[in-house]
TrEMBL record:
Keywords: Cell membrane, Membrane, Transmembrane, Transmembrane helix, Transport. The keyword Transport applies. It is a multi-pass membrane protein. Gene3D superfamilies: MetI-like. Belongs to the binding-protein-dependent transport system permease family. PROSITE patterns: ABC_TM1 (PS50928). It comes from the Bacteria. GO terms for cellular component: plasma membrane. The chain crosses the membrane at residues 9-30, 101-120, 132-154, 196-218, 257-279, 299-318. This is ABC transporter permease. Residues 95-322 form the ABC transmembrane type-1 domain. One of its GO terms (biological process) is transmembrane transport. Pfam families: BPD_transp_1 (PF00528), BPD_transp_1_N (PF19300). It comes from Mycolicibacterium doricum.
Length: 331
């Protein structure tokens, strides 16, 4: 891992640079005037010209890009024309809600995916039914899973909430903006469990399709590994199937699974916008939806950059985990 991680971090630099160039290019070709969005359509020409000069839009494009890149490295993503506050400040408020959802969804993905993969690969009782579930679950779009979940668990069973993050109006809002963490720091366990209670259904809906994909890849990887020569050797020595599975097969089968999870993270980040809108969670999805509706390009660009950084860093961690699971990756 010590050799893989520095190389992956260095490799992430040109990827992020290309992302910044793409966002800057889109800002230039988009039919949206960020100056007019900031000062208002009825602003006088003098006010418009002053704002344009202050934002640096009267400079040549190369200088604009250099200033944009420097500001982005310093955490200055501009001011939102919707909230009239710095975009980075808005993201710091909304992003923790989304990260909580992603974290719980990833836990669901690992638990459900590994259960499906192990059960179908080992031929446990009912594994045939699980194979059908895996095939059908892979074709369920996230919005349909959300609507079905709301219909079953809220409308008919009435056991799970479907809106917001908590039922407590006096829930702590700081210092981290992560409600799970802030509730612990504030000594409010009831808020902690209530937040988890509100996270179950949206996180499950977000994790359903990635979990099925993980289960299918894990099953295929396990079946391939279990037919290897080294598995045949330890089986000939009389080792039990469960010990073979957990001591010799599982770790060697994790490489493709981890690679797939790195790709599924991008899908989950994109689906978070839709899930948060359906379940009315005040996360980055709600923020970006409002920004798109009001043509707030600074907010759109800021969220795009943050999502790109999040995806690149997560895949860097996945690469490091792959090197731990299979040391040959480091070579």
């Amino acid at each position: 891992m010590l050799t893989v991680l520095p190389r992956r971090l260095l490799g992430a630099i040109p990827v992020l640079l290309v992302l910044v160039i793409a966002v800057f290019t889109l800002q230039q070709v988009a039919p949206v005037d960020p100056v007019a969005a900031l000062v208002g359509a009825k602003a006088s020409p003098e006010v418009y010209a002053a704002a344009r000069h202050e934002l640096g839009y009267d400079q040549p494009l190369p200088m604009q890009f250099v200033h944009y890149l420097v500001n982005a490295l310093q955490g200055d993503l501009g001011q939102s024309s919707l909230t009239r506050t710095p975009v980075l400040s808005d993201i710091a408020t909304f992003l923790p809600v989304t990260l909580e959802l992603l974290l719980v969804a990833m836990i669901f993905t690992v638990l459900i995916g590994f259960f499906l993969g192990l059960a179908t690969a080992q031929g446990w009782r009912g594994s045939g039914v699980l194979r059908v579930v895996m095939i059908s679950g892979a074709s369920v779009p996230v919005f349909l899973a959300c609507l079905l979940g709301m219909l079953v668990f809220y409308r008919y069973l009435n056991i799970l909430p479907v809106t917001g993050t908590t039922s407590y109006y006096d829930a702590p809002t700081g210092p981290t903006h992560f409600l799970l963490l802030d509730s612990v720091l504030a000594g409010r366990p009831e808020v902690f469990f209530d937040d988890l209670y509100h996270l179950i259904l949206p996180a499950f809906c977000l994790a359903l399709t990635p979990a099925v994909a993980v289960g299918r890849v894990l099953r295929s990887s396990l079946e391939t590994t279990m037919h290897g020569d080294h598995i045949r050797t330890v089986r000939a020595k009389g080792m039990g199937e469960k010990r073979i599975l957990f001591m010799h097969t599982a770790r060697n089968s994790l490489g493709p699974v981890l690679a797939l999870m790195g790709l599924q993270i991008a899908v989950m980040i994109g689906n978070c916008i839709l899930v948060e809108l359906i379940f009315a969670r005040p996360g980055i999805g709600l923020y970006i939806a409002r920004a798109i509706d009001k043509a707030d390009f600074n907010a759109i660009a800021g969220v795009t950059l943050v999502a790109g950084v999040l995806y690149v860093m997560t895949n860097t961690v996945v690469d490091a985990l792959q090197s731990i699971a299979d040391p040959r990756v480091a070579l």
